[in-house]
Specification:
It is built from 11 helices and 18 strands. By secondary structure, it is of the alpha+beta class. Helix 4 (132-139) packs across helix 10 (313-322).
């Protein structure tokens, strides 16, 4: 059965791709990892299957993340990944779908063009771009069309986007290349320095999710992990506590807090007063690190709220923005 091309919203994240199909809601949530055979250039696996291969592949198979710090670092692989996902969502269609893709707020024209070209080559009829903080605000249920200030902090895998939004656009924004991946790297570095043990990215991510924190916990938690001892070269098992995670993660967390501070300093006074009343909204998977909201609230003195379904916020916002595609088309004309 042929279908008309659907309208799709894609949150093209460094760590995860989340897609929203009009009328269906979120239809796809996959890690943005692609496994490619380096000899032939064929794609062997995409998403969850490819993520299992990270750090475990033989010489001829390369499992990579084609996006780095929120932008495309490997154009060809990104195009193949988008093609795979669009085909999976739409099946066979007569008309290609219109696609709306999220981008970090401070990307260059070249990076924007790379996203548009990759999506067009992957089978999109028309490509629209939306800034991540604006999509996150719409997804969090904020009415961004009114003339009052809302602050959104979207912490993803590669970038943290901070924006003050009023009348449907961002007034002050900042994009920081410190997010989920940098938290993982900080954990890898800390364990290497303290225990002389090397662990992989996936183990670091498990630690971050299970016992990671950036604000002192009432009850200290622990987790057992395995890695390679640098002295003996043999596998080694160690126990890590959440208090150690606090030591490892506080530095990148404070970078995010400082960036929020910087945006608040540049915010016009009327909008700053609105933010003080309404609070700061946090979205994205990175904001779920235990205690990040408390740390930000303590440092700024402003109430901080984590959006409902924080991980899917950007994709949901993109989906809601799809409803206004006809307005955008009319504007283009």
């Amino acid at each position: 059965m042929f279908k008309y091309g659907q309208d799709i919203g894609i949150d093209l994240g460094t760590a995860t791709v989340i897609a929203y199909a009009k009328g269906k809601g979120i239809v796809l949530r996959e890690p943005s990892v692609v496994a490619v055979d380096s000899n032939t250039g064929d794609v062997l696996a995409v998403g969850k299957e490819a993520r299992r291969m990270l750090g475990r592949t033989p010489g001829n198979i390369v499992a990579t993340r084609p996006l780095k710090d929120g932008v495309i670092s490997n154009y060809t692989v990104t195009e193949k990944m988008l093609k795979y996902f669009i085909n999976r969502i739409c099946g066979k269609f007569i008309f290609a779908p219109r696609v709306m893709i999220c981008i970090p707020s401070q990307v260059t024209e070249v990076e924007k063009k790379a996203v548009i070209d990759a999506a067009s080559q992957a089978g999109a009829r028309k490509v629209y771009l939306i800034e991540e903080p604006i999509a996150a605000a719409i997804g969090a249920g904020i009415d961004i069309s009114r003339p009052c200030g809302n602050m959104v902090v979207d912490i993803g895998g590669g970038t943290t986007d901070i924006a003050v939004i009023s009348l449907g656009g961002s007034v002050v924004s900042s994009s920081l290349k410190v997010a989920g991946d940098k938290f993982d790297e900080a954990i890898v570095r800390y364990i290497k320095k303290k225990y002389n043990v090397i662990i992989g990215e996936r183990t670091a991510e498990d630690l971050k999710i299970n016992i990671g924190c950036v604000y002192p916990k009432i009850q200290d938690m622990e987790m057992e992990i395995r890695g390679r001892d640098l002295v003996t070269g043999l596998p080694s098992t160690i126990t890590i506590h959440s208090s150690e995670m606090l030591e490892a993660l506080i530095e990148p967390a404070m970078m995010v807090v400082d960036a929020v501070h910087g945006v608040l300093e540049r915010t016009p006074p009327e909008l700053a007063a609105d933010i003080s009343d309404r609070g700061i909204y946090m979205t994205g998977g990175g904001c779920l690190i235990d205690g990040l909201d408390k740390l930000l609230q303590e440092q700024t003195g402003i109430n901080v709220m984590i959006a409902q379904d924080a991980i899917s916020c950007v994709a949901l916002g993109t989906g809601k923005a799809l409803d206004n595609l006809d307005v955008l088309d009319a504007k283009r004309r």
